Amino acid sequence: MNIAKKITLLFAILSAIIISLLSGFVWYFSNDFAFEDFYKRLEARVNIAAQIKLYEDANNTAYAKMRNRYLERLPSEQEYIMLANEAPAKVDRELPISFYNRIKAGYVARYRTENHFYAGKFFKSGDNGYIVVVSANDPVGFRELKDLQRILIIGFFLSVILSFIVGWKFSNYMLMPLRNIIKSVKKIKAENLHLRLDVKKGNDEMSQLAQTFNNMLNRLETAFETQNNFISNASHELRTPLTIISGEVELALKTVDDQQKQEKALSKIKDEAERLEHILTSLLGLAQSGFNGKNQPWEEVRMDELLWEIKESVNQVHPNSKIEIDFSKLPDDEELLSIRVNKNLIKLAISNIVSNACKYSNENLVSISIESNANMLSIAVTDRGIGIPQTDIQHIFEPFFRASNTNDFKGYGVGLPLSLNIIRLHRGSIAIKSQEGVGTEIKVLLPAKG
């Protein structure tokens, strides 16, 4: 069942419930008012009958004449007077004992069967007590209630049908923007990811849904472009050493008699093979860093202690580097330094950043500082190296991209993209600030609670 039918059905059910409750109230109060009015008319006749027939009064004859002249006689109206201490006399039908007991208790008794009504009351005359009962039919009121009942039932079904029609029209009207969104989304495929949904003015749910789809399409388009660029760059980076190796092999085959040229060619082949192995290792790490991390071990890690391990590992690669760790901004609460991370991945990410700082700083001092607040832990790596040109900063995290001033340094342009992927895996971010010829500061921000 689609949403439009569900809304229509729900609308009809709610309308039926409301209309039935309203009809019930109308029926109850109309019924109560009609019966109450007729009972009061009977009770007035009970009092008049008792006055005329039980009490001696010079005005009784006048009362009787006025009653016959001005008080209409009700359909099938009958009067019954009986002694209270005797067995109840039989009226036109047998009345329940509770009716008489209520009269003897001093109350006005009422009883109804179909449209025939009874009213009775106790009167004291002389030494005797009497029960006066008046009965009559109310065909008009009963017929009006039947008509009202018929009208309410017909009105109920007509209202339900009308509410169903209105609900169907209303649901179709409200869901029309959603259908337009679905139709537009179905037109978007891999080859036309540049298409976007029309976002109407306003801040309603449909506008937010369309904007959310557009944001998702932006991310998908960026991901597709990044993938295409990655494949293109990876192909280029892999082709270069393979071309060199192929050329050197041909040269070595042609210079069989020249041992010196063969050794030079083999040495070149070895260097390019190592370069190719490094590129493949970096590509594998870059791909693995895109996993969701659910199948990888996560643990509580003291980040200040991890920095010492990073310093030692980087010193092994760059033995002449000068790395200084600044603990002046450590928080008073040591627990703020522990976060839940994948230790191997986070160590690799920060090591890449520190290693780059050492490589491009020409053995100048590299400073690592750590600080934490209630929500975020930050690690800043600052060097006094060659810096990054402003035009290159926006591309620095693209795979295989290298800044224009790094031609004299060996590298493959994979380290920072790998670090960024790992930091994002940990729901963190990287901020970079650099000035060419002055130095670079890269700050890693990680959520304190992991």
UniProtKB/TrEMBL annotation:
<feature type="transmembrane region" description="Helical">
    <location>
        <begin position="151"/>
        <end position="170"/>
    </location>
</feature>
<keyword id="KW-0472">Membrane</keyword>
<dbReference type="InterPro" id="IPR004358">
    <property type="entry name" value="Sig_transdc_His_kin-like_C"/>
</dbReference>
<dbReference type="Pfam" id="PF00512">
    <property type="entry name" value="HisKA"/>
</dbReference>
<dbReference type="InterPro" id="IPR003594">
    <property type="entry name" value="HATPase_dom"/>
</dbReference>
<feature type="domain" description="Histidine kinase">
    <location>
        <begin position="233"/>
        <end position="450"/>
    </location>
</feature>
<dbReference type="InterPro" id="IPR003660">
    <property type="entry name" value="HAMP_dom"/>
</dbReference>
<keyword id="KW-0812">Transmembrane</keyword>
<protein>
    <recommendedName>
        <fullName>histidine kinase</fullName>
        <ecNumber>2.7.13.3</ecNumber>
    </recommendedName>
</protein>
<keyword id="KW-0418">Kinase</keyword>
<dbReference type="Pfam" id="PF02518">
    <property type="entry name" value="HATPase_c"/>
</dbReference>
<keyword id="KW-0808">Transferase</keyword>
<dbReference type="GO" id="GO:0000155">
    <property type="term" value="F:phosphorelay sensor kinase activity"/>
</dbReference>
<dbReference type="InterPro" id="IPR036097">
    <property type="entry name" value="HisK_dim/P_sf"/>
</dbReference>
<dbReference type="InterPro" id="IPR050428">
    <property type="entry name" value="TCS_sensor_his_kinase"/>
</dbReference>
<dbReference type="GO" id="GO:0005886">
    <property type="term" value="C:plasma membrane"/>
</dbReference>
<feature type="transmembrane region" description="Helical">
    <location>
        <begin position="7"/>
        <end position="29"/>
    </location>
</feature>
<feature type="domain" description="HAMP">
    <location>
        <begin position="172"/>
        <end position="225"/>
    </location>
</feature>
<keyword id="KW-0902">Two-component regulatory system</keyword>
<dbReference type="InterPro" id="IPR005467">
    <property type="entry name" value="His_kinase_dom"/>
</dbReference>
<keyword id="KW-0597">Phosphoprotein</keyword>
<dbReference type="Pfam" id="PF00672">
    <property type="entry name" value="HAMP"/>
</dbReference>
<dbReference type="InterPro" id="IPR003661">
    <property type="entry name" value="HisK_dim/P_dom"/>
</dbReference>
<keyword id="KW-1133">Transmembrane helix</keyword>
<dbReference type="InterPro" id="IPR036890">
    <property type="entry name" value="HATPase_C_sf"/>
</dbReference>
